[in-house]
Amino acid sequence: MQKRTLGKNGLEVSAIGYGCMGLDFGYAHKLGKQEGITLIRQAVDLGVTFFDTAEVYGPFTNEEMVGEALRPVRDQVVIATKFGFDIVDGKQSGLNSRPENIKAVADASLKRLGIEQIDLFYQHRVDPNVPIEDVAGAVKDLIAAGKVKHFGMSEPGAQTARRAHAVQPITALQNEFSLWTRGVQTNGILEACEELGIGLVPYSPLGKGFLTGAMSKDTPPGEGDFRSILPRFTAEAMDKNQALVDLLKRIAQEKDATPAQIALAWLLAQKPWIVPIPGTTKLHRLQENLGAAEVVLTAADLEQIETAAAAIQIEGERYPEQLLKTTGL
User: Fold this and answer.
1) Rounded to two decimals, what is the model's pTM?
2) Domain NADP-dependent oxidoreductase: where (predicted)?
3) Active site residue 319
């Protein structure tokens, strides 16, 4: 597996990481703990060195699974987790990035993961009630204490990220980015990353599964699947957005690849400091995703994709209004 570097402090990771959330959280199909551990270890065997989790996934169970799976290879992998939500009685209950909570979450995550240092600690969502300088300062304290190695943020606005970076340098921003969610190209995030030397970790790089071609208007999200509340996953929206999947299928056929591999290869081709973290519960999909690192898109290929994609109007927002309000702050 090829390697890429996030940030200026040399955090080297596999060119494609593994988003672990969906193993037991968020989607209708969930794996048991031992099944999840097996799949994570298979990812290691396939060359993945970058694993993403969060306290809120479960809550807590995902960190426990990831920690147990990676303990035998701790010195070979990078583990990212996140803080920033209030968790009350086992349920997410608003935002909480008060410094005392950040430090308590770090201690709890270290214990669940069974590690001595968190490699990359993201603020999961910006808390409008806490100055971002205080958040960055709290993580700076954790870094000084040896509990955290690198600071990250998920879904901040560009100016907020710049303010945080001035207090404690940011190693990576984790924002949604894919062929159907391209806000980072217009909202200043890519420019900030380029200027400040920050890596970008696109989550949902396969459009929460839609860009793989495995979903359609006839296969709506099942009960217990968070996609059922997303505007892009209504039957009408999926029908209209099928045009983007059809484009990926055409390019994939030319390249002897799959739509998912083209979607990931397109992201990898954008910048050398972009590291997508697709998730899956299936070994064959994991192998398929990692194969994207070997797909070469030429300048002509990228221009063809760009021209064709520009003619496709994406139907539906990526989140309902209340969730959109927690992004870009």
Assistant:
1) 0.97
2) 16-308
3) no
